[in-house]
Amino acid sequence: MSPRCFMLALTLFTAVPATAATRYIVRFADEASANAAIASVPKAEAAMRRKRSVDAGQPRHVATLAGGAQIFEVEDDNPAHFARLHGVTSVEEDRIVRPTALADPLYLRQWSLHDPRSGIDAEAAWKYTRGEGAVIAVLDTGATPHPELDGQLLPGYDFVSDAVRARDGDGRDPDPRDEGDWEEPGDCGRRAGSRSSWHGTHVMALAAAKRGNRLGITGVAPEARILPVRVLAHCGGYLSDVIDAIAWASGGEVPRVPTLTRRADVINLSLVTEGACGAAMADVIRQARERGVAVVVAAGNEGVGASGMAPGNCPGSINVGALDRGGRLAWYSNHGEAVTLAAPGGSLRGLRTDDLISAVDQGARVPWRSVFGYLAGTSMAAPLVSGVVALMRSADPSLHVDDITRHLVDNARPARCLKPCGTGLLDAGATLDAVIEERVVL
Ligand SMILES: [Ca+2]
Ligand SMILES: [Ca+2]
């Protein structure tokens, strides 16, 4: 555990006593000595009632324990004061004990948020905000029920127009639930079959999982809300559905779909397709930006130049590469001049704790049981950036998209990338410092 985590645990769970006095458990050689000592000092209760200044070195009697030991308190935290009492055999501080259950017990495994070398320093950003008031649209496989997303989701939409791919028997509809993207052997041009990924749920929880609910993890922006938009299904999804979903999530009009009353602050696209940025995609991203919506895209996991992968290569995209647990460019991450910055995406070298833990379902096909699982990829890196954008907008709702990009880029930390990975590692703390500083100046 890093010293920083340890500090956090202490801060959260060390209860502060009602008075500044320190309590001691004192044992005496016999009952007579104990009674004499008790009679020679004031009662703590009476001292508190009188509320007048007290002699710092004067012990006050608090209570008698079941085994005959006595509790005293002193103001100045010095057990030497008990030397003046007769017959004392032992003095120990009456320390504060704390519950061993952490608020989000898997937080310690979220190295991506707090590792000094490879984490985004989320705690430094949380001193300003945890995302209240901001909305993160996640265009993905949809959401499956999970306690980490309870109360975190706004009413979303299913933009998957192909009913067969969608597995819900229809085209677009107002229900963005994830119907499972499992594959039979031979599906999607792949020989082997696969289990449902629950990719959308994992991505959403990385951005905004509930905090302090005695369960699992915390998102980067746990007080932000997620707008779940389904665009990926069996064997992926059409670019055209993604284009319409970007228009909708940014507050634009889409035929036969009710227009949003509150547009998202940021759109997260943990998806990729090979090729140049098409004109329709470039247009819709430009329009989203003009409406004040940042578009964050995963650079892709092909280990190639990111300029050949859309929509991360579109003008105005905040294109996110992935770093491993050592803070190096991950072996699978796309890279090059088209990458804006990088964020932790996991090592993907077989040791799962070096990947990113988040909410998933245990069901191989359809939802069965809410659990937590590790995934790696630029898909995991992008929602950390989207979460930080939500923190930025929460701190300054009027922040322009160009300023969002500038602050992210300017405040990234140098990363150990052998190939270009933008300006380096996302730094939530430094980025929020910059937003706050500029907000105060203006
Ligand atoms: Ca549908
Ligand atoms: Ca949680």
Short description:
By secondary structure, the protein is of the alpha/beta class.
Descriptive overview:
By secondary structure, this protein is of the alpha/beta class. It has 2 domains: 73 residues, Alpha-Beta Plaits (2-Layer Sandwich), CATH 3.30.70; 337 residues, Rossmann fold, CATH 3.40.50.200. It has 12 helices and 15 strands. It has a 7-stranded parallel beta sheet, sandwiched between helices. Strand 14 and strand 15 form a beta hairpin. Helix 8 packs parallel to helix 9 and helix 10 packs parallel to helix 12. The longest helix is centred in the last third of the chain and has 18 residues. It is elongated and about 90 Å long. One calcium ion binds next to loops.
Which sequence of SSEs, written as H and E, runs from N to C?
Answer: HEHHEEEHHEEHHEHEEHEEEEEEHHH
Count structural domains: 2
Compute the gyration radius: what is it? 28 Å
Q: Quick one: overall form?
A: elongated
CATH-assigned fold name of the largest domain: Rossmann fold
Number of strands: 15
Q: What structural class is derived from the secondary structure elements?
A: alpha/beta
- Main β-sheet, in a few words? 7 strands, parallel
Walk across the major sheet and give the strand order. 6-7-5-8-10-12-13
Low-confidence stretches: 1-19
Q: Which ligands accompany this protein? A: calcium ion
